[in-house]
Structure formats: C-alpha cells, structure tokens
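Researcher: I'd like a candidate sequence for this fold, 164 residues long. If you have to choose between options at a position, lean toward the conservative one.
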C-alpha cells in the first residue's frame, strides 16, 4: 500500500513541479531538464538495486549529462534569475525517476491497470487541493466558457497521465 501511495505522490508532485517550472523558465530548458529522467532512473537503479551497466551505456550517459550541462551553463549566462524553474524541472525529473523505480517494484505484485488506477487516484487527491488554492476560478462561469477550448481552465483538466 505504501508503494502505491508513493507512486501516486511521486507522479503528482513531478507533474506539479514540471508545470511550475514552465512558468519560471523557458519551455525548451524546462523540457530538456525534465527529460533527464532516464539519467536519474539509471542512477537510482544502480544505487538502490545494484544494477550494472555496460561501457556503452556509461559513455552515452556521460555524453547526455555533458550536453545538458552545456545547455544549462548557457542558460545560466543568458537568463539570470530563472534558476528556480531549472531546479523545479530537475526535481520533476528526479520524481518521475522515482515513480518509474517504484512502478518496477509494484509490477512484481500487481497489474499495470491496478498500479495506474491507484496512482492516478492518489495523484488526483494531491493535485485537486493545489488547483483549488492556486486558481481563483476553477470552472467556467458561462456556456461559452465551457465551449471554448482555449480557456484557462482546460489546461488544468488535461494532466499528462501514464498510458498502459
């Protein structure tokens, strides 16, 4: 039960951090940093589960980290004061990696449907109060607002959910 709750919490907080990072830094930098998830997943599997990787994998990992570092250093020089968004994007990648590692442990005991159902439910319970406290109007006030797909509220409804 703890792993299921952890899976949902890691998922919810990773999505919230990534969404926040998009408001604090550029979309390109946020996306590049959030896509460090495989690096953190591999590192976590190595540290927590003793997984070993071959030399090619290590070389690829070093190249990936060097590329992200080069982009990050350029971003630091160009946009001072936007570092909080970069940190949020990296933390979201770490949380997604934790989510993947927990899901791997859960897959030995449960079906993917059960894991995703519980994870989505827990994530919804965590995300909903955050949405209530951070937005002044959650639902549209008129029928035109419901019909307009470009309204602010529609971005709150379409969360990136894992697909089985």
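Model: Candidate sequence:
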């Amino acid at each position: 039960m703890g792993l299921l709750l952890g899976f949902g919490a890691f998922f919810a907080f990773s999505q919230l951090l990534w969404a926040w990072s998009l408001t604090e830094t550029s979309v390109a930098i946020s996306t590049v940093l959030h896509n460090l998830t495989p690096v953190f997943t591999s590192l976590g599997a190595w540290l927590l589960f003793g997984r070993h990787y071959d030399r090619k994998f290590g070389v690829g990992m070093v190249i990936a980290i060097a590329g992200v570092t080069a982009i990050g250093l350029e971003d630091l020089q160009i946009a001072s004061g936007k570092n909080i968004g970069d940190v949020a994007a990296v933390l979201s990648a770490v949380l997604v990696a934790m989510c993947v590692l927990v899901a791997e442990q859960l897959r030995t005991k449960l079906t993917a449907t059960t894991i995703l159902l519980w994870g989505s439910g827990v994530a919804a319970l965590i995300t909903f109060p955050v949405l209530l406290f951070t937005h002044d109007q959650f639902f549209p006030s008129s029928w035109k607002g419901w019909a307009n797909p470009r309204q602010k509220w529609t971005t709150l409804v379409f969360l990136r959910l894992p697909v089985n």
